[in-house]
Amino acid sequence: MFAAYVGPSMNPTLCEPEMMEIVPYGSRPLRIGDVVFCLPPKADQPVVHRVARVTPAGITTRGDNNTREDPYLLHPKDIKGQVVAAWRGRKRREISGGLQGRLTGRWFCWQRILDRAVAGLLRPPYRALSRRGNIAHLLPLRFRPRVVVFHAQGQDQFRLLMGKQVVGQYDDRKRQWQIQRPFRLFVDERVLPKQKEKDLSG
Q1: 125 or 178, which is more confident?
Q2: What is the CA radius of gyration of the chain?
Q3: Residue 149's domain spans which residues?
Q4: Do 19 and 82 share a domain, yes or no?
Q5: pTM of this prediction?
């Protein structure tokens, strides 16, 4: 089975607009560290997260880009399969599960903690440089991030791509762009489309 990955919760393990290769478990055991495609209780949309714990009460999961475990418990019937690979065009990349997946998930957790510590020191000069947008104009046009529109979950969504990598997205609820560091330095946010323009073009 194949499904398109949407959202930031499993970055950098999975990134839009990759296609996920999903294999049913069958008789294989579920392991801590596996990335699973599941339908949580009372949810309308499937979720792709990593297995964090397996207990008699149920299975807990967490996205590699999230700081907390998901607030629900899963049961075997809720898990539709394991994500074993991600496809970007014709390029296939394996997704680790089990012990290796567990170590990968922990590494990303420590990386976030270190990132927060460093970010606290660098945030003031980073914000000042990104607000001016001067660095963005130094890049040749073909290297600058570009805005594309994805149709997902019944609506158009703005994404910011640098090469083939999604580096930002427009948050409809907050009505602002969410751009990964350090890519905000290479973007003049004043020229990016906003919600009002999106509504007018619809």
Answers
A1: 178
A2: 19
A3: 134-201
A4: yes
A5: 0.62
